[in-house]
Structures are given as structure tokens and as C-alpha cells.
Amino acid sequence: MAHLLASNPSPSHKIVCSNLGYGAGRGSKSDSCRVGRKRRGDGLVLQCSTSTSTSTSSSQLPCVDQDVRLQIENGSSGKLKQQFEYLACEYGWRVRRLFENADEIRKASEVQAEAFHVPVSIFNDVFLQFFQAEVLSGLLYKLKNSPPNRYACLVAEPAKDDPDSAKQLVGVIDVTVLRDRNVLQHLPPEAEEYLYISGIAVSKILRRRKIATALLKACDMLSILWGFEFLALRAYEEDLGARKLYTNAGYQVVSRDPPWTSNWIGKKCRVLMIKRTSMPK
């Protein structure tokens, strides 16, 4: 497989998650997240720890073995460091950037293909295989040709101690820096770019388990790390379930597709939804 460009954040963008709360709800002591202070050129530090833990510096990793902490801070173990880098840890799920290896890229593309494939009456398996290949090709292209701070594929996995569970990808979402005028017209004049959310997919057998909510939370954290104040996405107007999900995550409808673009047979009307993040000072 062709070599992929690095898709992980730069070293200055440290994302730290410890004491993962499996099955804990939002606001519980086991999975509260906070954003550390930002210094120019140092990026941001996200720490997921108990809300009752004592204050620590941005370089500390609560509840992590001292030897492990030293390896992470010294950068002596890339895989070990990557294991603790998460953008969100909620509802028993944790979200990170996609690892740049063939096996995980294939798994991520399968999750998205399964979610977006429209079944057909005959030869469904054949069409699904073609669709999976198309999704895989698109993901490979984006990873190879996009700068690491302009595109990210985020994946969700179970927040369990079982090593085998971490190999299971249960959700995927794409985040891309864009500057579409149709979106920028709904933003303040000083906003030149924004993060566009797309390709959100959750394994069918695990839907309604807050995985999508955790993925959207990770997008919020990524927007803060990259310094973007606005996030945007599109949803089908008649998909009330998806719209409720996005509304609960803080997105608001700002516009709809023009009538002449959705009057074609089979063409569904979409709504544009935008969220403004709270940037830390």
C-alpha cells in the first residue's frame, strides 16, 4: 500500500486522556475533561481525569504509571504515547485520530461504507464490496494529500482495559478545514475558514449508544487545538434523528438548500448547521 502522510497532530498538540470512565455518563467524576492553558507555540493540552483530582501541570498524566509517563514525555515510545492521546472520553467511548496503518484505515472505511451503503434487491454484496473499495480509495487519497492540520479522520473505540477491545473501531468522522462562501456568509466577517464535519458513521449494531455524541465532542476539541471557532455540517432536513443529535451538540440551522436544487426526483433537501466553540483564553 502506498505510503501515507502523517495524519497525527504535530508534537506540540498534546492530547492526554487518563482514568477513562467506562460506561460513565456526562458530568461524572470518572470522565470529566478540561482544556489546559494555552501558550503561544505550545498548543493545547486536554486532560481527562477525575473532577476531584488535584490540579496538575499540563505535562502531567494522572493515574499513569511513572515509567509510562516518562516514556511518553520523552517521546521514547511512539506507540505508547499514541495510546494515551484522545480527543474525547465519554459514555464508555474514546475518540482519537486514525492510526496511519493499512489495517486501521481499512476498518475505518468499512464502518463508513456499512453506514452509507444503500441496499439493493439483487447483488447487494457485490455492490457493497465496490462501495467499500470506493470509500477506502477516498480515505487513502485524503490522508495522503491533506496536511495534518487541514484534515483529520477521527475514530471511536471502546474505553475498556481489554487490549483486544481497542482494536474495534465503532465510529468514524471526517474533519476538514474549508472556506466555502456559502458557509462563510453565515459567519462573522473576520472568520476566513471553519471546520467542516462530514462522513459521520457508527457501526449498525452499536447505534444509540452515544458514540456519535462522543465523535462530535472530539470535533469540538480538535477545533480548539487547531484554533478554529466555528464548525459546520449538513444534514437532511427530514432526518429528524440526526438533526436532534446535532442540535443537542450545539449546532443550529442557519440555512436550507435552495428549492431548485432539491426538486429533482430523489434529491433530498439539506440544512446547514453551524456551531460556535468556546475558545479558552
UniProtKB/TrEMBL annotation:
Superkingdom, natural source: Eukaryota
Recorded GO CC terms: NatA complex
Residue span, N-acetyltransferase domain: 103-278
Gene Ontology biological process terms, A to Z: mitotic sister chromatid cohesion
InterPro entries xrefs: Acyl_CoA_acyltransferase (IPR016181), GNAT_dom (IPR000182), N-term/lysine_N-AcTrnsfr (IPR051556)
Recorded GO MF terms: N-acetyltransferase activity
Protein name in the entry: N-acetyltransferase domain-containing protein
Organism lineage string: Eukaryota, Viridiplantae, Streptophyta, Embryophyta, Tracheophyta
